Amino acid sequence: MRRHSEAGASCRAALGIAAGMILLWGGTACAATIAITVSDLAFEPAVVEARVGDVIEWRNADFVGHTATDRSGQWDVALPEGKSGSIPMTTPGVMSYFCRFHPQMTGIIRVKPKL
C-alpha cells in the first residue's frame, strides 16, 4: 500500500510541475502574423490592429509591383508582382503607409503594446 501512495505523491508532484510550466508558458502571448493582401490596387484590409512582436506580411496578388511605405520614413517594403514582404512591429503607435508607385493606395496599422 505504501508504494502506491509514494507513487501517487510522485505523480501529483510531476503533474504540479507540468501545470506550473503550462501556466508560465501560456502566460506569454505568441506573436501573430497579420496578412494584408495587395489586389486591385488596394491594401486589404486597409486597417489592421497588431501588438508589438507581431509581424505584418503583405502578399502582392496584383498584376504590378507595389510598396508598403511608412509615411514617417521608418520602413519601406518592396512588393514585386506575386511576392510577399514583411516587417515586425517593434513600437506601439499608429502607422500610416502607402504605395510609392500608386499613392492612392493607403493603409493604417494600429500597434498596441505587448501583453
UniProtKB/TrEMBL annotation:
InterPro entries: Cupredoxin (IPR008972), EfeO_Cupredoxin (IPR028096), ET_Amicyanin (IPR052721). PROSITE patterns: PROKAR_LIPOPROTEIN (PS51257). It comes from the Bacteria. Residues 28-109 form the EfeO-type cupredoxin-like domain. This is Cupredoxin domain-containing protein.
